[in-house]
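Worked problem 6 (solution included).
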Amino acid sequence: MKKYFNPAFLLPAVYCLLSTAVFSQQDAQYSQYMFNPLALNPAYAGSRDVFSSAIVYRNQWTGIEGSPSTALLALQSPIGKKNAGVAMEVMSDKLGFKSNTALLFSYAYHIHFLKGKLSFGLRTGLYDYVYDWNKAKVKDQGDIFNTGGSSSKLAGTVDFGCYYYTRSFYWGLGLTHLNRGTITDAQSSDAAAQQSIHFFMPIGKAFQAGRTIINPTFLVKGAGGAPTEVDMGVNFLLKERIWLGMSFRARYGVVFMTQYLINEKLKVGYSYDLGLNSIGTAGKGSHEIMLQYDMNIKGTKMEMLRYF
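Solution. The predicted structure is:
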């Protein structure tokens, strides 16, 4: 029997989260983060040395009504003599009666360091948080958030990242919402929720075995008020065309993914999350689709093979 989501069950959790100064994990989650590092770290902007565009759509816990869904458009390009990069992201994220839309801009500066490059990046922009209280069944009519109708709140963000990369290795650290902007309207300043600082630390390394590339990946992520999470995975690039891989997410489940390199410019990826905990089992899995297109604006020959 299909399980449906009742928005009423969300209200106590939302109230507990929104009524504290420290909010738990707010940023959207991506299973194909190793192919979309910009979402975690502004320092990645321009590191591909090409104009790159990516579209990502994620539908999480498809068996639960009102479950999270995320759409992302990301554009990035090197500027100058490829020692700097810029990026723009447009994101829409929905969960139950809460949704937010973001417009973000990044700048990164890259310097030669050891055998690779080290970059530092800043990202800023606006989030529009919208709460449609008509979708919630409220038991406590005196709840300060029970305003009826809908409400919205604009909040800025300031993010920072550093990123070290070679042709076969990368390490990064991304920090988001350092300004901790206010994201709800409330009569009491003590009840107004703030953005929580998030951190993301991905690590990846490529090894070659014949015509196969083996790429183990590791991601540590966390946020104020939420436990630290760890993703561990491995991807295999077969015949320089097809990525196949899987990862294990602590306290959640397993992710299976694939990506096909159609040509030197275009690639498409898909991942499926198999949740093994209670909500993952009820949710009946999560789907994520990614489409990426690269264009060399410098006019020089592009490399077909990019590990990251």
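Discussion: Confidence is low (pLDDT under 50) at residues 1-24, 187-191.
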